[in-house]
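Tokens for chain A. Residues wanted.
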């Protein structure tokens, strides 16, 4: 239905909902994923930049944190993003990216300088916890700062995914990487996922 509406095949006027058979006859995207990608590709200019910032924020961001990312910011810029279905607003005002599988492809489509500016802006204005700061610091190349945030995040919420990401970030330091791989393995075992613990445990042992 979203694909049909996006293509203009389903519209609404004072008389009710209208289905345009001529548009349907031209064909719609073959799958939900294709339709999603088409909508993502349709984002351009400031809207694409704002969408990327919301996606990069992860667990939500307030609109006022986005002001510095585009010239002549207007709240109305968000309306086009709500229409895509990629962005939703929670009751508390936080803006959420609703298509996590498309967050990285969207960010990767931007020039490196724009991606870094987005992460720096979010780090300064919107990072509310160590896990978020870890992600943003890592994205701007501050590996030392990122690993310090990872330690703080681990002390609050020891998650296997955090340990895996920190181990990758610490690849230049065998001792630190080994510690994070061991944490990853132990967390997986604590969660009853013994098979998932095998690879990080092997890596921890290899790094000695």
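Reply:
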């Amino acid at each position: 239905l979203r694909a049909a509406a996006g293509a203009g095949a389903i519209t609404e006027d004072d008389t009710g909902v209208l289905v345009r058979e001529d548009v349907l006859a031209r064909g719609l995207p073959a799958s939900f994923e294709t339709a999603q990608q088409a909508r993502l590709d349709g984002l351009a200019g400031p809207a694409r930049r704002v969408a990327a910032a919301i996606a990069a924020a992860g667990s939500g961001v307030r609109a006022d944190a986005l002001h510095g990312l585009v010239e002549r910011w207007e709240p109305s810029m968000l309306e086009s993003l709500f229409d895509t279905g990629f962005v939703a607003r929670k009751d508390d005002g936080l803006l959420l990216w609703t298509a996590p599988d498309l967050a990285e492809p969207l960010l990767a489509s931007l020039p490196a300088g724009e991606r870094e500016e987005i992460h720096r802006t979010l780090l300064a204005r919107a990072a509310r916890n160590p896990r978020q700061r870890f992600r943003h610091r890592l994205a701007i190349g501050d590996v030392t700062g990122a690993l310090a945030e990872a330690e703080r995040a681990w002390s609050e919420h020891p998650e296997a995914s955090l340990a895996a990401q920190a181990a990758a970030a610490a690849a230049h330091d065998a001792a630190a990487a080994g510690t994070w791989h061991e944490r990853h393995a132990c967390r997986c075992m604590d969660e009853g996922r013994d098979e998932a613990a095998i690879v990080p445990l092997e890596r921890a042992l290899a790094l000695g």
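The mean pLDDT is 85. The first helix runs from residue 2 to 6.
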